[in-house]
Automatic annotation (TrEMBL):
It comes from the Bacteria. Keywords: Amino-acid biosynthesis, Hydrolase, Magnesium, Metal-binding, Serine biosynthesis. This is phosphoserine phosphatase. SUPFAM superfamilies: ACT-like (SSF55021), Formate/glycerate dehydrogenase catalytic domain-like (SSF52283), HAD-like (SSF56784). Its EC number is 3.1.3.3. It catalyses: O-phospho-L-serine + H2O = L-serine + phosphate; O-phospho-D-serine + H2O = D-serine + phosphate. The keyword Hydrolase applies. The lineage of its organism: Bacteria, Pseudomonadati, Bacteroidota, Sphingobacteriia, Sphingobacteriales. PROSITE patterns: ACT (PS51671).
Length: 429
């Protein structure tokens, strides 16, 4: 059986928990900013391998001045700070309860309440434990725990003696030490929240999201294709707020001064302003392009029509619309995540509800009779149950979204792609 060793701070959660605890416990302290910085510095030095973990931990705990009430506030805060790609893959943890281990230099008192909500077993959580005085103040920690010591994760894994291949995911030097020790098969540097160059350059693989880790290892995941692998080409005057939304979604942003064919050829998404729209003929060789978001009005009917004929949806918005920076990215994200086409200037309108516990597939085809029957025939021959299906058309295309509630093999996808008159096919989740 394979095992997945997952770090907690800045990996499972977006933050370093002890740093956050300090901000809670020292909120009224006159020197709080100075102490915050000291704690943060101790964290970073250890994570980068410039200070032993045991020295860093001891220094941070001394500075905390925290108690049980502060821990309650911290737990509530951390539950809202679970890394986005981990929170959307709850189903993976539910179906792999024996393979996933949380191994952290943090503390069980705040880790356990957070990760057990994601179906992770208490007995698979390995972390330090605080020591309290009679009044509930944190006065120290169990120094016999190997995770409180330098090289603690390596020591722990030697004790556990896990069988099978072991994969480690984390952001810090203590995570890399597992790879360095030869105890794990691969180390994945997790960079969704922070990228430590000294760690990333030693990793077997850099994973900007948990989706990427699951994809690389051919494991079940909430989305079919990691967003960090989808290039978003940005050309012209595009508001920074719009780019921030796309970055939060995890897309690989590439900014250029003009729409060159070589960059358009690689792009899955194009964002451009009114003065930097692609020529209609450029779309003929943009095989990966799924969507164009124009901050302004589409310049020609021909561009919208050629895009539609090639299965590329276009969203546009008046140039000086005050909602512009928010409107276009929201439409792009809704299409990429759920297949929604509402307000598109060239696709038929469809706003399907999200169905839980289902896989969503999109099929775009020439508007000719009989395609829906052929799609459903593929599902029927493979005994796949359809839980929801939506078809809309315009004179050029048919746009079908199908939600199915069972797994399928690659043959099903290949058969759907091979249906005559298919323009584009996508598996969303």
């Amino acid at each position: 059986m394979d095992h997945f060793i997952i770090d907690f701070d800045s990996t499972f959660t977006q933050v370093e928990a002890l740093d956050e605890l300090a901000r809670i416990s020292l909120k009224s302290h006159p020197d709080r900013e100075k102490i915050y910085q000291e704690i943060e510095d101790l964290t970073n030095l250890a994570m980068e391998g410039k200070l032993s973990f045991s020295q860093s931990l001891e220094g941070r705990v001394k500075l905390l001045q925290a108690n049980r009430e502060h821990l309650k506030l911290l737990i509530s805060h951390l539950k809202k700070k679970v890394s986005t790609s981990f929170s959307r893959n709850t189903a993976f943890f539910k179906h792999h309860p024996n393979e996933v281990l949380i191994v952290s230099g943090g503390f069980k008192e705040f880790i356990t309440p957070v990760v057990t909500e994601y179906h992770i077993k208490k007995e698979n959580i390995y972390a330090n434990t605080f020591e309290f005085d009679a009044d509930g103040n944190i006065v120290g920690y169990d120094r016999t725990n190997p995770l409180s010591q330098e090289g603690g994760k390596v020591k722990l894994l030697k004790e556990l003696n896990l069988q099978g291949d072991i994969y480690g995911i984390g952001d810090g030097y203590s995570d890399f030490q597992l790879k360095e020790s030869g105890m794990i098969k691969k180390f994945f540097a997790f960079t969704e929240n922070i990228e430590r160059k000294s760690v990333a350059e030693k990793a077997d693989h850099i994973t900007p999201s948990f989706d990427e880790f699951l994809y690389i290892n051919k494991l079940p995941r909430a989305i079919s294709y990691p967003k960090n692998r989808i290039k978003c080409l940005v050309v012209g005057n595009v508001d920074e707020e719009a780019l921030l939304q796309m970055r939060k979604e995890g897309y690989n942003i590439r900014q250029r001064e003009s729409i060159e064919d070589k960059y358009l050829h690689e792009a899955g998404i194009l964002l451009c302003d009114e003065n930097n729209q692609p020529k209609a003929e450029q779309l003929l060789n943009a095989g990966r392009l799924k969507i164009i978001g124009i901050f302004g009005k589409v310049q020609s009917r021909k561009l919208a029509e050629i895009a539609c004929e090639n299965g590329i949806i276009v969203f546009d918005d008046p140039k000086y619309n005050p909602r512009n920076a928010d409107f276009i990215p929201k439409r792009v994200i809704a299409f990429m995540n759920e297949g929604k086409t509402h307000t598109s200037c060239n696709f038929p309108d469809l706003q399907p509800p999200r169905v839980s516990n289902a896989h969503r597939l999109i099929h775009i085809h020439r508007n000719v009779p009989g395609i829906l029957a052929k799609i459903n025939d593929v599902f029927a021959r493979h005994n796949i149950n359809i839980v929801g299906e939506f078809l809309v058309t315009n004179p050029q295309i048919g746009y079908v979204i199908t939600d199915v509630n069972t797994g399928y093999d690659a043959q099903v996808l290949n058969e759907l792609k091979a249906i005559e008159h298919t323009i584009k096919f996508r598996l969303l989740y």
